[in-house]
Write a sequence for this structure.
């Protein structure tokens, strides 16, 4: 009845545990790849219709939205910022509102990630 441990060397135990963990991670990686391949929620691609020989091929340019020029915050945004500052308890007048480092803010990257995720 008295079983003795196979090993008491901590390095051997660590190596066995690390090996098991990495094997499980590799199995999970391939399982995730398999799920991406066999994804039932992915929209099915429709085959492209073959062009008719009688009609000439014409390139159709899609209507891309025109770029929006960033002219700064609108009066509505300034009013909302002023109302939020006033609700916080500041008494005074907002004289200037400007965007600081609008390219690298976490809010912008989060919005960009969420926009791409929805498509």
């Amino acid at each position: 009845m008295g079983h003795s441990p196979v090993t008491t060397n901590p390095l051997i135990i660590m190596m066995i545990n690390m090996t098991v963990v990495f094997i499980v991670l590799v199995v999970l990686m391939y399982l995730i790849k398999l799920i991406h391949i066999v994804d039932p929620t992915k929209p099915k691609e429709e085959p492209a219709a073959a062009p008719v020989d009688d009609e000439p091929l014409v390139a159709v340019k899609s209507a891309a939205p025109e770029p929006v020029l960033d002219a700064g915050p609108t009066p509505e945004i300034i009013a909302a910022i002023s109302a939020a500052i006033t609700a916080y308890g500041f008494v005074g007048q907002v004289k200037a509102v400007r965007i600081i480092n609008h390219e690298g803010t976490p809010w912008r990257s989060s919005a960009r990630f969420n926009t791409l995720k929805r498509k």
Summary: DSSP finds three helices and no strands in the chain.
